[in-house]
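User: Sequence recovery, please. Input:
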């Protein structure tokens, strides 16, 4: 089974961009280490196509790299930089453009025959990230509607992480409110594996 993880820095997690075999140090690596012993009868080819800092626009521009490997399943994680770069680079992505980009990515992945799992972008409740919230909420609503209309599984990370951090410090899962700690990565990996089981 060819399994591709496609996303931004949360997916990339420090991988060597010049080494296709490098899965990084985040949830992709953890998921791979769990899947292989869980399903020893399945030959997994796992790829990390995460690139830090990328928005939906950049993922759409390189979606052909993903479809070229003819994946069986693609885990798509993107969206927070469409908000973040509004504040760092004054690059504004409208709701309409976000919907167009995200939908185009999904359609391209489905067209190549891949099953697609959507992973919701998230931001935890930290003072310097609270300005992200209204914009992220808009994008999440778009993603949930695409998941509904395209009948795709969705990992509602924003909802889940903000739920569990009512009782546990957000820093336990993402020190800066966005990039997951090891604990956060393990949580993400487990949630994705739960959805992957539907295709195994």
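Assistant: Recovered sequence (200 residues):
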């Amino acid at each position: 089974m060819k399994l591709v993880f496609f996303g931004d820095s949360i997916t990339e997690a420090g991988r060597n961009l010049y080494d296709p075999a490098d899965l990084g140090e985040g949830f992709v690596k953890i998921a791979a280490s769990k899947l292989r012993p869980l399903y020893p009868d399945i030959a997994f080819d796992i790829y990390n196509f995460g690139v830090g800092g990328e928005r939906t626009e950049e993922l759409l521009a390189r979606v052909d790299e993903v479809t070229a490997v003819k994946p069986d399943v693609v885990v798509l994680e993107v969206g927070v930089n469409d908000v973040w770069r509004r504040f760092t680079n004054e690059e504004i992505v409208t709701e309409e453009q976000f919907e167009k980009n995200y939908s185009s990515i999904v359609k391209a992945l489905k067209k190549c025959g891949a099953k697609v799992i959507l992973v919701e972008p998230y931001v935890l409740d930290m003072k310097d990230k609270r300005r992200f919230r209204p914009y992220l909420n808009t994008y999440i609503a778009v993603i949930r509607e695409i998941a509904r209309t395209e009948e795709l599984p969705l990992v509602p990370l924003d909802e889940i992480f903000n739920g569990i951090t009512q009782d546990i410090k957000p820093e336990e899962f993402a020190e800066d409110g966005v990039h997951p700690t090891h604990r956060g990565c393990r949580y993400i990996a487990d949630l994705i594996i739960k959805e992957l089981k539907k295709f195994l």
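The first helix runs from residue 9 to 12.
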